[in-house]
């Protein structure tokens, strides 16, 4: 059956007639036809054909009454939900049917009905939903799935009626603290609590005591993967360790989750460990290693996940004063099939990772990309090399500059332009060191076409005019057509001409200067440019006039003063960093901006206070020694805990010291299949016989 | 928390949308997404709040692009993006698993809207992710899958039309040396096989499911029927055709909230077997000219198939874990069933497996650049003999694995695209080839030579196989002479038997040349891609990393049954095992 036809817009009448035709026949073949017609309704709703489909409500209700097929029911519910979220009032007629389903003995139908009730923003439905949930909580044996759904539906109901939900919050607290035997419910309740609080914004964030947290964490191995993720996700901030030991123990319990295959779990585990690290004195080297390993393993995931990991974990961790990750540079080398957003982020990571040791490696990689066919990429690589030169010390800058000069010979115009732009920054940082290279660069003055590189070139020529014999000629190429330039270039041309004049007062420079001043004051449309030109003009004429104490020296000082050295700021503000670390995996950390800047009306997260909170992050010690105090503490506790759990579960402790013996007891052949060999041990010992036996097996 | 989930087609039009948080409209947000999205934008896009007055919160779009579809989730700012992204990924896998296809396309989604809706419903409640394990959901949702056969028909049409763009080497009528009729027959046979296979797998899958569930009820058939009727409320999505499908293991419903959420109770098999396959995919990339290795990685997976009754506990010991191999331990990711604490102890992996197929763990090992590749291309040379109007390609491979092992498959695919561009090759003359082992095939449509070696012995460089292919180059002088002869002589032109390769080549590449003219500067990457010499191989009983399963023990304390564990190893090539030549 091809369902292509279903996905076309239908008129209500067409479908109605189709449905009625089926009514008449009441045959078995009619069932599929009827379902087909109903499917068409759903398809049309997806297409957004609401007004037509709204007319079919009576038909739908009729079917609902007589039909108890699951699929039909599902379609009916789907219909009411979609229509209901757009036109809540029109669906009131369906309320009795939904209530009927809600009272059904089938758990699935009940859940469906509850979801429908909740998804319609209309007071009558909401009332019923509340009543049902209250009724559920009073009952003793409620199916877990249903209970879980009821709890989560509260979050949705919170949008409609906050007061009423707030009155039910105590119930949720009760579940969190008491229902130890049902971990899923417990976590659902805790999650719902957090959600409701977060949306509210006024009330204090949820807190649970350390004991409860330990109880829940004990359950970790038995939880479903998504529940684990949720739990680890909400634990930071909700639980505040009161002693160092608490924090150590929690870290130990969470650590294995770092190796979970579900990346949501491992990232959440990372997050909680990061959070807990604020509450301990010193951290073991092995923990750092494991954190790094789990991050690296996450980098093997599909591009989108990789992006997230790169973006908000690594960047964050690397911008800490004292890095918590030990990562090798080659992990961040760019591969040609990476999407552009990954390439960008990797470049940033490389930049953050760079230091004296890794520089050569990184530069090799960047140089390769600088000659890449992809224009954007090669520009970014050149830019990164320049930034590295500014970030690191003079020795490293030398290496970077060598590469840049080498790339100049590559001769592609956009690379040259980019090099010119970054060279300005390098020269600002190290005015003296690379003087000798300026002449080589000046040869490429003709390449500078874009605003930024033109600007940079003009600046370089002006600043190093003392070593460039033909500076004026070079400069004149830039000021032939000043009025057509971009505003930034106009400004720098103007300023440079003044500088030349002040530095080397001669007929040529004066002529040039006057010409530019005239053009800028008389022909330019940009008021800023005009006023700046006038300002210079007045300044110059002031200096000319006698009687003022404006000397040529002063003029030089004003126009051609010494420039401050530039610095590149890579570190984030510590308060922001702290908040971002609490938000690992959320949207804020992708943009590396505090929540309040991205979202209005959202409260800021901060580390809750506790007697053991580290006031200063740099105090956290990294230690190698396994016998140190903190670890031995935690080890004791963990061993103790293991004993406890063993006692609790009464597990069969299997020792595997017999693995080298032949598997006699394992391979019993029993039941109908009689073996030609009487004793099983023989069978196992003779592999050839075993093979024959096994070939008899049926195929699945 | 996800508010709306969409599946979009390649034009960003919604195929399916699921309004989770009862937003008044699902169309408006997606219209904005269409504006904001541009190829290459990161997987998280911030929506601008101002366009929708009714939105109570700020929101973002999280999306992944798979096959030709977009999976988009509209999320508010409280969400854990990692969770959402991972969920979208898992949902995509879930769909693929359900449809048992390798690639999803929009028609599949459009054909099964109810199924997709149900899957969405089941996997996410009020924006909170519940389950994404295909094995489990399959027990829940058993809507009949509507897989169109049109696709296959289309394919058939395409094939008969003579335009084969699929990179099937087995389109034998393209290869020289086999007659076209025979080739077509072969293809048809294969196609039939393919059809058959796809049908039988889906059937088997369904059958497997039902069998398993039925076996939990040990009554006779009639009894079962009655039970089904009694349990009418329980019955899933009633299947009129297949009564067996209406059964649902009542234990299943509880599974998701139990401690071991990945396995239902009451599974029973007559024969208890457990298959454990260690599969290592080897990725290798080398620039042959400069002899620089760009990639040399092992992507390993331990794939298991479990047909065990009850709630067994398995102990697996891996030498890498015993030896505390650091690289292995750090890169290894385990399935959720593995108790991660057991790995901490460093002895063995303890787990209760889910039923059916699953991946126990996956790992990634980087090899040293100087480590020899498992199959090495030791010689590759073009020898143009222009005075004789001949062009020879020499190629030699050598093996670098245990001498006791033999490859079960080994294909070397030599690209010819550049060659055809560079030289004028006369296809009207026979192509000569000689090789130590296997056979050499020529694919006209995709421009490559395929050297099928098949079995090759292992060794450490001493085992070499080589081949030579000789193309004739176009000889203007000779051509002119022949033309002249044709015109002057009375003899009819010589009859050419078999297929005329040059004509086929012309036909296939006619439209291509047009296309290339439009884009005169082909991307460097694509150029490089066209110049890759791929090697496909499969070596059973061997792993490159030396991973070894020390023992595998199955214990089921209640049932105490006898069980059969099977362990296999295999090394195969990853998608990229290539030399740039």
Automatic annotation (TrEMBL), chain A:
It is found in: Endomembrane system. One of its GO terms (cellular component) is endomembrane system. One of its GO terms (biological process) is vesicle-mediated transport. Keywords: Membrane, Protein transport, Transport. The keyword Nuclease does not apply. It holds the Pfam family Adaptin_N. The keyword GTP-binding does not apply. GO terms for molecular function: clathrin binding. Residues 14-543 form the Clathrin/coatomer adaptor adaptin-like N-terminal domain. Adaptins are components of the adaptor complexes which link clathrin to receptors in coated vesicles. Clathrin-associated protein complexes are believed to interact with the cytoplasmic tails of membrane proteins, leading to their selection and concentration. Belongs to the adaptor complexes large subunit family. This is AP complex subunit beta.
UniProtKB/TrEMBL annotation, chain B:
It is found in: Cytoplasmic vesicle membrane. It comes from the Eukaryota. GO terms for cellular component: clathrin adaptor complex; cytoplasmic vesicle membrane. InterPro entries: Adaptor_comp_med_subunit, AP2_Mu_C_sf, Apm2_N, Clathrin_mu, Clathrin_mu_CS, Longin-like_dom_sf, MHD. The keyword Protein transport applies. The keyword Transport applies. Residues 156-205, 218-246 are annotated as: Disordered. GO terms for biological process: intracellular protein transport; vesicle-mediated transport. Its main location: membrane. It holds the Pfam family Adap_comp_sub. Keywords: Cytoplasmic vesicle, Membrane, Protein transport, Transport. Residues 186-201 have a biased composition (Basic residues). Residues 271-580 form the MHD domain. Residues 169-180, 229-246 have a biased composition (Acidic residues). Belongs to the adaptor complexes medium subunit family. This is MHD domain-containing protein. It comes from Maudiozyma barnettii.
């Amino acid at each position: 059956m091809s369902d292509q036809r279903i996905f076309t817009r239908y008129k209500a009448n067409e479908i109605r007639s189709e449905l009625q035709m089926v009514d008449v026949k009441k045959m078995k073949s009619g069932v599929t036809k009827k379902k087909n017609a109903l499917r068409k309704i759903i398809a049309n709703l997806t297409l957004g054909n609401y007004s037509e489909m709204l007319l079919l409500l009576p038909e739908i209700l009729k079917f609902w009454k007589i039909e108890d097929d699951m699929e039909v029911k599902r379609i009916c519910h789907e219909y009411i939900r979609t229509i209901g979220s757009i036109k809540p009032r029109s669906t009131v007629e369906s309320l009795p049917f939904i209530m009927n389903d809600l009272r059904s003995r089938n758990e699935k139908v009940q859940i469906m009905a509850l979801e429908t009730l909740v998804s319609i923003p209309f007071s009558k439905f909401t009332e019923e939903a509340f009543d049902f949930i209250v009724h559920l909580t009073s009952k003793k044996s409620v199916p877990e799935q249903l209970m879980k759904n009821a709890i989560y539906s509260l979050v949705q109901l919170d949008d409609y009626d906050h007061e009423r939900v707030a009155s039910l919050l105590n119930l949720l607290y009760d579940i969190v603290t008491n229902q130890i035997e049902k971990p899923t419910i417990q976590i659902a309740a805790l999650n719902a609590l957090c959600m409701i609080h977060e949306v509210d914004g006024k009330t204090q964030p949820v807190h649970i005591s350390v004991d409860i947290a330990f109880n829940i964490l004990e359950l970790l191995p038995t939880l479903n993967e998504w529940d684990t993720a949720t739990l680890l996700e909400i634990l930071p901030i909700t639980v505040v360790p009161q002693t160092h030991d608490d924090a150590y123990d929690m870290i130990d319990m969470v650590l294995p989750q770092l190796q979970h295959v579900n990346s949501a779990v491992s990232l959440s585990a990372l997050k909680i460990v990061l959070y807990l690290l604020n509450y301990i004195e010193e951290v073991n080297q092995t923990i750092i290693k494991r954190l790094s390993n789990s991050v690296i393993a996450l980098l093997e995931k599909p591009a989108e996940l990789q992006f997230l990991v790169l973006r908000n974990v690594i960047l964050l961790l690397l911008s800490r004063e004292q890095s918590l990750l030990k990562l090798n540079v080659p992990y961040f080398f760019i591969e040609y099939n990476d999407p552009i957003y990954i390439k960008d982020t990797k470049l940033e990571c490389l930049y953050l990772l760079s230091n004296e040791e890794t520089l050569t490696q990184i530069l090799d990689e960047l140089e390769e990309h600088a000659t890449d066919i992809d224009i954007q990429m090669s520009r970014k690589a050149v830019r990164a090399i320049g930034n590295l030169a500014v970030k690191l010390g003079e020795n490293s800058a030398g290496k970077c500059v060598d590469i840049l000069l080498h790339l100049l010979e590559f001769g592609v115009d956009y690379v040259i332009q980019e090099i010119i732009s970054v060279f300005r920054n390098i020269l600002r940082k190290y005015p003296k060191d690379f003087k000798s290279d300026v002449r080589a660069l000046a040869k490429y003055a003709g390449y500078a076409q874009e605003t930024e590189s033109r600007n940079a070139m003009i600046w370089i020529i002006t600043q190093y005019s003392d070593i460039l014999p033909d500076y004026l000629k070079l400069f004149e190429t830039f000021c032939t057509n000043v009025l057509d330039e971009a505003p930034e270039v106009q400004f720098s041309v103007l300023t440079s001409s003044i500088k030349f004049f002040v530095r080397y007062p001669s007929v040529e420079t004066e002529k040039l200067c006057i010409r530019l001043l005239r053009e800028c004051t008389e022909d330019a449309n940009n008021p800023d440019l005009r006023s700046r030109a006038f300002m210079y003009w007045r300044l110059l004429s002031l200096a000319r006039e006698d009687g003022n104490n404006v000397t040529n020296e002063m003029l030089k000082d004003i126009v051609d003063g010494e420039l401050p050295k530039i610095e590149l700021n890579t570190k984030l503000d510590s308060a922001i960093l702290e908040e971002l670390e609490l938000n690992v995996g959320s949207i804020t950390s992708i943009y590396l901006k505090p929540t309040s800047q991205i979202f209005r009306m959202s409260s800021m997260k901060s580390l809750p206070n506790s007697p053991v909170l580290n006031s200063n992050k740099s105090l956290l010690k990294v230690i190698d020694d396994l016998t140190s105090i903190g670890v031995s503490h935690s080890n004791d506790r963990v061993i103790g805990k293991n004993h406890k759990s063993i006692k609790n579960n009464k597990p069969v402790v299997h020792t595997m010291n017999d693995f080298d013996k032949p598997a006699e007891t394992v391979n019993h052949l029993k039941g109908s299949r009689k073996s030609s060999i009487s004793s099983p041990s023989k069978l196992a010992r003779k592999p050839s016989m075993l093979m024959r036996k096994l070939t008899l097996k049926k195929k699945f | 928390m996800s508010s709306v989930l969409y599946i979009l087609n390649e034009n960003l039009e919604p195929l399916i949308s699921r309004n989770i948080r009862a937003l008044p409209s699902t169309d408006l947000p997606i219209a904005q997404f269409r504006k904001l999205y541009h190829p290459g934008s990161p997987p998280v896009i911030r929506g601008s709040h101002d366009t929708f007055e009714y939105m109570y919160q700020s929101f973002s779009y999280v999306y992944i692009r798979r096959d030709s579809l977009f999976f988009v989730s509209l999320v508010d700012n409280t969400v854990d993006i990692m969770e959402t992204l991972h969920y979208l990924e898992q949902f995509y896998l879930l769909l693929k698993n359900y449809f048992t296809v390798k690639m999803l396309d929009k028609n599949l989604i459009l054909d099964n809207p109810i199924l997709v809706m149900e899957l969405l419903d089941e996997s996410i409640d009020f924006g909170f992710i519940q389950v994404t394990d295909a094995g489990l959901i399959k027990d829940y949702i058993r809507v009949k899958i509507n897989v169109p056969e049109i696709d296959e028909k289309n394919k058939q049409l395409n094939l008969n039309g003579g335009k084969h763009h699929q990179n099937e080497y087995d389109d034998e009528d393209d290869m020289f040396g086999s007659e076209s009729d025979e080739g077509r027959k072969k293809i048809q046979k294969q196609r039939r096989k393919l059809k058959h296979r796809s049908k039988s797998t889906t059937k088997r899958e369904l059958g497997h499911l039902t069998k398993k569930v039925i076996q939990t009820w040990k009554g006779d058939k009639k009894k079962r029927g009655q039970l089904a009727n009694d349990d009418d409320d329980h019955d899933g999505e009633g299947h009129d055709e297949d009564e067996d499908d209406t059964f649902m293991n009542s234990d299943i419903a509880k599974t998701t909230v139990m401690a071991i959420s990945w396995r239902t109770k009451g599974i029973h098999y007559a024969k208890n077997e457990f298959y454990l396959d260690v599969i290592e995919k080897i990725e290798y990339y080398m620039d042959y000219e400069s002899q620089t290795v760009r990639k040399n990685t092992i992507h390993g997976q331990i794939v298991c198939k479990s047909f065990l009754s009850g709630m067994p506990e398995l102990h697996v010991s891996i030498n890498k874990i015993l030896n505390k191999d650091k690289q292995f331990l750090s890169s290894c990711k385990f399935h959720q069933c593995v108790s991660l604490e057991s790995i901490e102890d460093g002895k063995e992996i303890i787990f209760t497996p889910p039923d059916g197929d699953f991946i126990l763990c996956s790992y990634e090992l980087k090899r040293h650049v100087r480590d020899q590749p498992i199959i090495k291309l030791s010689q590759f040379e073009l020898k143009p003999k222009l005075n004789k109007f001949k062009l020879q390609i020499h190629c030699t491979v050598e093996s670098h694995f245990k001498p006791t092992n033999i490859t079960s498959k080994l294909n070397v695919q030599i690209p010819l695209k550049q060659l055809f561009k560079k030289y004028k090759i006369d296809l009207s003359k026979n192509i000569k080839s000689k090789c130590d082992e296997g056979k050499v095939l020529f694919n006209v449509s995709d421009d490559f030579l395929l050297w099928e070696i098949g079995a090759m012995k292992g060794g450490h460089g001493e085992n070499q196989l080589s081949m030579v292919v000789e193309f004739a180059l176009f000889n203007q002088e000779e051509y002119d002479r022949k033309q002249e002869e044709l015109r002057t002589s009375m003899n009819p032109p010589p009859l050419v038997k078999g297929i005329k390769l040059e004509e086929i080549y012309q036909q296939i590449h006619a439209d291509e040349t047009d296309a290339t003219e439009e884009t005169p500067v082909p991307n460097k990457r694509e150029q490089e891609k066209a110049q890759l010499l791929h090697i496909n191989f499969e070596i059973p009983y061997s792993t490159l990393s030396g991973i070894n399963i020390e023992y595998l023990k199955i214990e089921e304390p209640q049932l105490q049954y006898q069980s059969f564990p099977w362990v296999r190893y295999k090394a195969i090539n990853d998608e990229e095992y290539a030399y740039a030549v």
